[in-house]
Structure formats: C-alpha cells, structure tokens
Give the backbone structure.
Amino acid sequence: MIYIVTVLLIICVAAVIVLSVYLLRQKQALRKLSEQVTHTLESDDYESIGDLQKYTEGELAVLESQIGKLVILLREQAQGLAKDKVLLKNAIADMSHQLKTPMTSLHLIVSMLADQELSQEQRLDYVEHGTQLLNRIDWLVSVLLKLSRLDAGTIQFVQKRVDFRELRETVIRQIELPMELKNQELICDIQANSGFEGDFRWTAEAVLNILKNCVEHTPEGCRLYMTMTENTIYSEIVIEDEGPGIRAGEQRKIFERFYRGEHASEGNVGIGLALAADLIRHQNGTIKAENRREGGARFCIRFYRQIT
C-alpha cells in the first residue's frame, strides 16, 4: 500500500513538474511574442517576428498563426503606403513642373497688359495668347485629376456593350477639326456588329487621345487609319499614322507619364498617351506601340473577354 502511494506521489510530483515546465515555456514564449509585437509597433520592423518556437497545436499555435498573418498584412500595407508616398511626391513634382511654365507666361502677359502704351492690336494678341495658356492649364488639370482618380480607384467603369461604329462616330466628331486644318484623312475599316463589353465614355477618351497624338505627328495632307474588329478572344482597335514613327527604345516609354518623345511638339506634356493606356488597362485591355512597315506609328489596343 505504501509502495502504491509512493508511486502515485512520484507521478503527481512529476506531472506538476512537467506542467510547470510547460507553463513556464508558454509564459516565456508569450513574453517574447509580446516584446516582439511591441518592438514591431514602435519601430515598424515587420521582419522581427519570425524566430518564435513553432507550435503545431494548442491555443498558442493559433495565436502565433494569427499574429503571423497580421504581420504579413502590416508589412504589405507599409510597403503600399511607402510606394504611394513616392508616387504622390513624383506626381506633385510633375504637376508643379508642368504648371509652372504657363503660369509664368500668364504673369508676364498680365504685367504687359497693364502697359497703357500698348496698341489695341498688341493687347488683343496678348489676350488671345493668355486665353490659350488658360485653356492649356484647364486641360492639364483635368487630365491630372483623371489620372489621380484612376490611381485612387474612384472611377467606376460601366460594363455595357460598346459598339465600334458608334465609338468611331463619337471620336471623329471631336477630331475632325484639327484633321481638317492639316488636310488629313481618316480611313476606317470596321467589322460589322463588332464591339466589346466596357465603358463607352472612357474608351472614347482613350481612343481620342491616341488619335490626337497621331494627328499631331502626321504631316499635312497625309492619312490616318483605324481598324476595329472582334473575335472570340478579344476585340481590337488598331490606329496607324503616316508620321515619322516611334524611335527605337521608346515603344514602352511613350506610355509613361510626362514622357516626351523625340518628335513631340512644344506644347506636348506627355500625359495624353499615359491616360489612354491607364483607361485601357483598367478595362482588361492592353495597348502596344510599334512602327508600321510602310512608315509611321501603329497602336494596337485589345480588350479581352472576361472568363466566367
């Protein structure tokens, strides 16, 4: 009987020791985890949590797993915020740079208009020049706001059937005057009943910006071409011109914001094609720039069908 009691006592003591060791290890792990979480919150060091003892079961293992997920989320958010700060800084710098030139010219014009010795003809010339600068600033601010809305994800794209013939008519009405001034002709080849599922208004703006770029770089009396087709995989819009083409190495760069190619005009600020590319990509589309075999630039837009 005494033997049995002694064995039971030894077992109880051993159990208490094992339990104490187990609880002590958990307490140490929890303290270490708490210290690392505190360090992470105070220093933004999201790499510091990772060398804990790996538990495979129990409440501590669940807690460790949840904290690990939280650390990953915090790391991704921190990286995203850092990237957004860089983008915002660059965007503000670009806006300031692009607005500085016309604003400086406007200040100069206003000071000249105050000269009482100006003739009526000179005064009208300054007023006309100032109006052009104001229109340019208005357009620039409008495009920059659209790009900002795209970056912020606040633009809601409508998903409706966009008919290519209707799209062509809408775009032509807005581009026909500058084409007429340069005696240019737009030749269209549109597949019957072709189109895609997307946002009509934003797509028209993207296509219009590309056409404006082509008109700008195409000499007087030359032609532009636009082809619209649809197949079972994607809908395609191809826009071509008879200009000087795209210099080697610029095919990708021309879609970057504020990039001005070698043949860009003096008033070109390099955001029209960037806006067009962003509008297309937000609609499950792609855009590629290349040179035609016959000479000139070629822009290929594809809107891919959504797989359901």
User: Anything to note?
Assistant: The helical segments are 2-43, 58-113, 120-152, 164-181, 200-217, 272-281. The chain has a mean pLDDT of 80.
